[in-house]
Amino acid sequence: MIENVEKVVVGKRKEIELSFIALLSGGHVLLEDVPGVGKTMLVRAIAKSLGAEFKRIQFTPDLLPSDVTGVSVFNQKTMEFQFRPGPIMANVVLADEINRTSPKTQAALLEALEEGSVTTDGETRELQEPFFVMATQNPIEYGGTYPLPEAQLDRFLFKFKIGYPSKQEELEVLNRVEKGHPIAELEAVISLKDLIQMQKKVVNIYVDETVKRYIINLVNGTRQHHAVYLGASPRASIALMKAAQAYAFMQDRDFVVPDDVKTLAPYALQHRVLLNSDAKLSEMTNERIIKDVIDHVPIPVGNETAK
């Protein structure tokens, strides 16, 4: 699957792996980067590789919650209301520029991201499996945007950037799109049924208690850090454990090791902490704080890990 996406997205293997880790563990991804670096293409390539139903929601200031979840329309022939599903009811959903819409519409995603369902007209409708959301936001433009609240950020498993390609990678991009875009020829390499089976295997990856304690210590470290006003929640501990299970599965192991947790912690924790005023004045960043926490929390070694 990763190699298939790499036919379209050049030189971003780590970001592609993180996306599939989130997909396998049932999580969602927030991409924060400047326009034109391949955020949309990454999501489309993932959807095509799975043969999944893909929908795109272009978030704008006038977007309504019903434009996301769906709406009931009165059918004059049957004299009944019929529900027309919104774009959220797909396997892979691109929530493009999510911070450009109002908090009311942003909130329409909360239930879908956490519970895999939407409630409209008093009726709860389950979303089809698998369900995967990749949201994007532009970190440069702040005019006319609504920053995502902490409750919304906490629903995303990972937050990361794609970044600019190197000169050689950009040359490869030009060569590939010279006579047509490779996304048009991309084909599915697995079925949705196969993916669901993999997701079930990920849940059964063994996580030792020492590794669980390491996860708890990392999350607790964000709460006790002197520069943090609000630390990561227990949802962060669950997310980090599930992500580590998916990462171990991708490494062809049936158990999680502490290094799995350490590798994924920056992407799972940095968007879940709020800095205090002193840290903001001293130009501290979430990335630096999470790195500081990881460096100071001891890793289980020796007999503890061997168990």
Automatic annotation (TrEMBL):
**Superkingdom of the organism of origin:** Bacteria
Which SMART domains does this one have? AAA (SM00382)
Q: Ranges for the AAA+ ATPase domain?
A: 25-166
Q: What is the species listed in this Swiss-Prot or TrEMBL entry?
A: Evansella tamaricis
Q: What is this protein called?
A: MoxR family ATPase
Instruction: State the InterPro entries in the record.
Output: AAA+_ATPase (IPR003593), ATPase_AAA-3 (IPR011703), CbbQ/NirQ/NorQ/GpvN (IPR050764), ChlI/MoxR_AAA_lid (IPR041628)
